Amino acid sequence: MLYELASPLLHLMAHSRRLIDAAQGKRRSIAAVERPQAQFRSAKARLRRLDVHLATAVMPMAGAWLALHRFERTTGPTPNAVPLASAGALVPMGKGTLALHFAGPLEGPRVLVVHGWSASSAMVLPLVQALSEAGFRVVYPDLPGEGRSVSAPMSFHEKGRMIALHCAQHGPFDSVIGHSAGGLIAAIALEAGLNANKLVTVCAPKSLTSLLQAYLVQTDAPRRLHDGISKIYSLVYRQSPCHMGPQTFARLQANLLVVHAKHDWQVLVDEAHAILSSNPAAGALFLDNCNHRSILHHAGLLQGIVAFLGKPSDPGQEQPC
């Protein structure tokens, strides 16, 4: 594949440029020093896009497989400014290690907060801090392969099973809260046996199929792959991405709260309405003056969650794990 062949050369060119600049006494920008991986980002994106288009032209299912392969290997940046919590744990998995973080009083109601695709637990920290200050005991992992969790690539249902397996010892949970694609991971974890009474989705897509199609749009993949990527997922994993999310959302009835930013342009509010149409008994909360990420800072989010779960009777004092 063009990207895999050219990527080492692009990294070598970036390293050579840094050496030449250093030899010539040129000062590099802070961004270039801190994020050397951003060098040639545009060229890398074009190569990945060209790869998928060429594979699709030769054999559409090959293009779908390559798109899925890339989707499962897309990870977000690891934030250097957010240290591993002192009460954190690194849990061995079959394919790597899972980083777990903790906040809030030990005696508080337990909630599990799951971040989204191509992100890390740092993204949900505003919500974690608000929940812990309200008296909840919060467990928030870095998903496998994201943040401080080092792992070989996994499918979405594998990630959900790992969360269910390795977070179980810190439950049972009053609720799982999933932001964006973390809502799907949370649903998969519940189906895998995670002991939790309720689920809160925050700006979540209605299904894994919906997320995969959004990825194809984001990467400018050929239109014909929109059906093909779901088919290839089902063939590879014997799991239908169309059912990942909807089955759980419908089953939970009144134990589901669907929260969405009214002006979310990354995961459209239509996704929330689709979830609610499959479960009229679910609670709904639509928030103004926020988007896909800033909703995690919104005071209305904490208020809605507390109203749904119930206010902790005595927050107590935070203690180490």
Automatic annotation (TrEMBL):
Highest taxon listed in the record's lineage: Bacteria
GO molecular function: hydrolase activity
Residue span(s) of domain AB hydrolase-1: 111-278
Cross-referenced Gene3D superfamilies: alpha/beta hydrolase
Listed InterPro entries: AB_hydrolase_1 (IPR000073), AB_hydrolase_fold (IPR029058), AB_hydrolase_sf (IPR050266)
Pfam families: Abhydrolase_6 (PF12697)
Keywords in alphabetical order: Hydrolase
Name of protein: Alpha/beta fold hydrolase
